[in-house]
Amino acid sequence: MYIRTHCVLFTSHLPAVLFSVPELPQPPQNLTVLKVTFDSVKLAWNSTVSTTTAPVKSYVVRYRQCNSTSDDYVEISVLKPEILVGGLSAQTAYEFHVLTVNDLGQSPSATSIVMTTRREGQAAIILFLLFNLYKLVSTATTYICLVLV
């Protein structure tokens, strides 16, 4: 049950009546970047549970490029407190906001988070280097040991 404001009605002939008025949800907390690639970002946050608000229905994730001259945000609605946003541009800074939604509407905006996507091809280069290092180690362990000593 969600209770925030108590209103009591008194009349001279009837007992007092107590009722509650639900509120808008609180904004999410601890917005965190879990993973960044050249074209995507994975975010997670904590839902704010409160006895004073209606149950959470969903979350709205808003984002835009930081250098954008427009105030327009892309909005995505999700049911869980995490999202993988794809289709981003490489080496580009993005600003993200998350809002909580219940039957009464949206929460105020929580603190935003700004992150920059990676350079395209960075992951492929790292995998290539690791694979070649593995081949080198598996075929020339003596040589590698001499170099490290």
Keywords:
149 residues; alpha+beta; Immunoglobulin-like; 2 domains; 5-stranded antiparallel beta sheet; 3-stranded antiparallel beta sheet; 2 helices; disordered C terminus
Which secondary-structure class do the elements indicate?
alpha+beta
Number of domains: 2
Number of beta strands:
10
CATH topology of the largest domain: Immunoglobulin-like
Number of helices: 2
Principal-axes geometry comes out as elongated
> What fraction of residues sit in β-strands?
35-45%
End-to-end gap: 67 Å
Helix content range of the residues, please?
Answer: 10-25%
Describe this structure in words.
The protein has 2 domains: 25-118, Immunoglobulin-like, CATH 2.60.40.10; 120-149. It has helices spanning 122-139, 141-148; strands spanning 5-9, 17-21, 29-36, 41-46, 58-65, 74-78, 82-85, 93-102, 105-106, 113-116. It has 149 residues and is of the alpha+beta class. The termini are far apart. The strands form 3 sheets. Strands 5, 6, 8, 9 and 10 form a 5-stranded antiparallel β-sheet that branches. A 3-stranded antiparallel β-sheet has the order 3-4-7, with no helix packed on it. A hairpin with a 7-residue loop joins strand 1 (5-9) and strand 2.
Q: What's this model, at a glance?
A:
Helices cover 17% and strands 38% of the residues. The protein has 2 helices and 10 strands; from the N terminus they run ββββββββββαα. The strands form 3 sheets. Strands 5, 6, 8, 9 and 10 form a 5-stranded antiparallel sheet that branches.
